[in-house]
Amino acid sequence: MNSKDRGIFILRAGLGLGFLFAGLDKFFMWASGTPFTSIGFLGHATGGTWLGSDAKTIVNPTHSLWVSIAANVSLVHIIDTLVVFGEVAVGVALILGLVTRFAGVCGFLLMALIYVSGWSFANGPFNEAFYYGLIAIVIAYVGAGAYALDTVVAKLAVTQRIPVVKYALG
């Protein structure tokens, strides 16, 4: 295989491991020892920061949306479940190279929501969520590369007949 395929594999697997670890950490409570909930983040950490702004100043134009979501415990429970499941599913899909384009888009959307909700620009607009999202959308664009289960699934007869499925694969 060529160096492009190896590079795509390294990016895809590395990002997948990051997503997988984040989801498993929330599920098994490794870091915190307490069940994961986004209530605290949504209610108190979505005010945002900007270069040179006072830490108490709310600069995130979407802050009231996240606070209103945090007030709805049923909705937060659904969101928490989707975050954990999404991180694990995107992680596994990227590591295996299975439905890679779809996983890349889902990873991008998750990171975009985290990026907008956090609105953390105290050190500039480029943070972890930005780069995870950027890598995810690039993977969605370029596909899985040669080291992926997508290459096997793409050869199946049923996959050949359904163009949408072929595109969702890398």
Strand content: under 5%
| Global outline | elongated
Determine the N-to-C terminus distance. Answer: 16 Å
Structural class: mainly alpha
Structural features, described:
- There is one protein chain.
- The protein is an all-alpha fold.
- It has one domain.
- Helix content is 67%, strand content 0%.
- The chain is built from nine helices and no strands.
- Helix 1 (3-28) runs antiparallel to helix 4, helix 1 crosses helix 6 (128-142) and helix 4 packs across helix 5 (100-118).
Write a concise synopsis of the structure shown:
The protein is mostly helical. It has helices at residues 3-28, 39-44, 63-70, 73-96, 100-118, 128-142, 149-153, 157-161, 163-168.
Keywords:
mainly alpha; 170 residues; 9 helices
Question: Topology of this structure?
Answer:
Layout: H1 3-28, H2 39-44, H3 63-70, H4 73-96, H5 100-118, H6 128-142, H7 149-153, H8 157-161, H9 163-168
Helix pairs in contact: 1-4, 1-6, 4-5, 5-6
